[in-house]
Amino acid sequence: MKVQTRYIHRKTKGICDIHDITKDVENEVATSGIINGTVTVFVPGSTAGITTVEFEPGLKKDLPELFEKLAPTGVTYHHDATWGDGNGFSHVRAALLGASLVVPFNNGTLLLGTWQQIVLIDFDNRARQRKVIAQIMGD
Amino acid sequence: MKVQTRYIHRKTKGICDIHDITKDVENEVATSGIINGTVTVFVPGSTAGITTVEFEPGLKKDLPELFEKLAPTGVTYHHDATWGDGNGFSHVRAALLGASLVVPFNNGTLLLGTWQQIVLIDFDNRARQRKVIAQIMGD
Amino acid sequence: MKVQTRYIHRKTKGICDIHDITKDVENEVATSGIINGTVTVFVPGSTAGITTVEFEPGLKKDLPELFEKLAPTGVTYHHDATWGDGNGFSHVRAALLGASLVVPFNNGTLLLGTWQQIVLIDFDNRARQRKVIAQIMGD
User: Fold this and answer.
1) Which residue, among A43, A77, A100, would best test binding to C if mutated, counting the most C CBs under 10 Å from its CB?
2) By the CB < 8 Å criterion, does C3 face chain A?
3) What is the ipTM of this complex?
4) In chain A, where the domains are located
5) Does the beta-carbon distance from A54 to B42 stay under 8 Å?
6) Which CATH superfamily includes the segment(s) B2-138?
7) Is the pTM of this model over 0.90?
8) How far is residue A136 from each of residues A53, A139, B103, C49, measured CA to CA in Å?
9) pLDDT confidence of residue B82
10) Which of residues 45-64 of A touch C (CB under 8 A)?
């Protein structure tokens, strides 16, 4: 049984910028020397989240519209009063979506659905340089 | 330390169809030969999700009503323009809820609350045959 | 490769009461004898959830306001008809947020962002004594 910590880097634009990181995660698992197990995909930071979605142009518009409805920009959050950085909407969206996703793999292959991609969503209100963790465990 | 990959099969009806899969997960853990560890419950596919809830008739109506409010059917999603399959609402709901849940266990017993069940929620707009992964890891 | 099950106890007040349990999780990892791996933070019970957030006074108001908007108190849920305990809103909020979070660690240190705290959110409509599981796995 082994543990491998890998890093996936992405430049993001913020305001619900969605990045498909499936190939990155697949590559890290494939080169880890671990055959069966789980990969924990985790984003450090409190204004981004991880989930799965079919990564196609329609949903790349639908998901931002969903989050705009649930936690709109353009209104004042108490967080904005604390720091004055105006990204209260980013924080509550990230807390709602969650920072971790765990994907099982077998014979070196992620057990994802055919149309299911692993995505990083950056909710911040500015461009960021993100470092996503892929913690690979198994035997 | 061992890894076991198990599959749980369910026929679902879609449109927020909720299935209690707790006993299935318990059985897979009990027969895995692994005593202490975690089980990652993961649904392949981009129109279903996994969470926990008290599985009783009231909440089986409340949860669909919540998702109907958050991401309604009967409105047009950009995804529908892409594929014409009319299940944009299913995709955004699934991305919001998440595809993975990780439950710890001890002495072969899941550490769930008394009224807490593991559920598969199928958000698709049609009946599906789902295969849920239970990735069991531990010693 | 080892597994350690640890417990974190918290008295909560309910109605979206948010508790920073980061130091507790860090302490359990530090004293576990496990150097690299993951900690699964899981709350037993169906009226509480786990996520990460920047734990500061503004967001401690913003998150309850978000959940009040998504699944309000003061309306009737089908669950309330089942049990008469009036906490239908608590259950649907908990199911939406999720009961598990998995955080990777390296050299004994959680790979969290600088402003990212692990929080227990109690959605119940009364004070509770919560026992959160920290399932630590790795080598």
Assistant:
1) A100
2) no
3) 0.97
4) 2-138
5) no
6) YjbQ-like (2.60.120.460)
7) yes
8) 21, 10, 18, 25
9) 81
10) 45-46
